[in-house]
Write a structure and sequence with these properties.
This protein has eight helices and six strands, in the order H-H-H-E-E-H-E-H-E-H-E-H-E-H. By secondary structure, the chain is α/β, with parallel strands linked by helices. It has two domains: about 50 residues, Helicase, Ruva Protein, domain 3, CATH 1.10.8; about 110 residues, Dna Topoisomerase Vi A Subunit, Chain: A, domain 2 (3-Layer(aba) Sandwich), CATH 3.40.1360.10. It has a four-stranded parallel beta sheet. Helix 7 links the parallel strand 5 and strand 6.
Length: about 200
């Protein structure tokens, strides 16, 4: 015998497909939808359908947009390009309100174990943007892991001969943490990438 009647089971199943959502969380989400009045549930469903119909990738940088070109590409200084893995990384950097350049979203990183090579991500498009001219610096802001580092090194190898500075986000001990609780790799990286005072 099924635990849920069919409509609830179907909704729980759909919610559980979301990343980080287990069966219990999916059940809570389903119960919340049931408790909504119909107008709230319709607004929720319309938001999902709306994002699927309206959101696309910027033809220049690959970030999310409703138009062919995103607002960042239309209005920002194009001399500095920050390369990121996914559109959600753009959102994280934009929250800081520090970076004034443009982005380039790779939509992945080089990961031979998963069968992802340089031709499977948007590296050709990055090189095309650089070859158009006026780019002075490429900041590689991929995650500080094996795949992110491999991608950063690959990009640096391709971009440096084009007379463009290539930088990588520095890494180290997080603000507010204690050295004794910092893992060995992070502490080692903090020593290697230390700054002058």
């Amino acid at each position: 015998m099924d635990i849920f009647i069919e409509p609830i089971g179907k909704l729980v199943n759909e919610f559980s497909k979301l990343p980080g959502v287990g069966k219990k969380t999916a059940q809570r989400y389903a119960y919340k939808i049931i408790d909504m009045d119909e107008s709230e549930a319709r607004a929720f469903a319309d938001a999902i359908i709306g994002v699927k119909r309206k959101v696309r990738y910027c033809k220049i940088c690959g970030n999310f947009t409703e138009e062919d070109t995103c607002g960042i590409c239309r209005t920002r200084d194009k001399e500095i390009i920050c390369v990121v893995k996914e559109p959600k990384d753009v959102a994280a950097i934009e929250k800081l309100r520090e970076f004034k350049g443009v982005y380039h979203v790779l939509h992945g990183v080089i990961d031979p174990l998963s069968g992802v090579g340089p031709n499977d991500i948007r590296i050709r498009e990055l090189l095309a943007r650089i070859n158009e001219g006026n780019v002075k610096e490429v900041i590689v802001a991929t995650n500080p892991d094996v795949s992110g580092d491999a991608t950063a090194m690959y990009i640096a190898k391709l971009v440096k001969p084009l007379d463009v500075t290539v930088t990588r986000l520095s890494r180290g001990i997080p603000v507010g943490s204690e050295i004794e609780f910092t893992d060995d790799v992070t502490l080692s990286r903090a020593f290697i990438e230390r700054n002058k005072l």
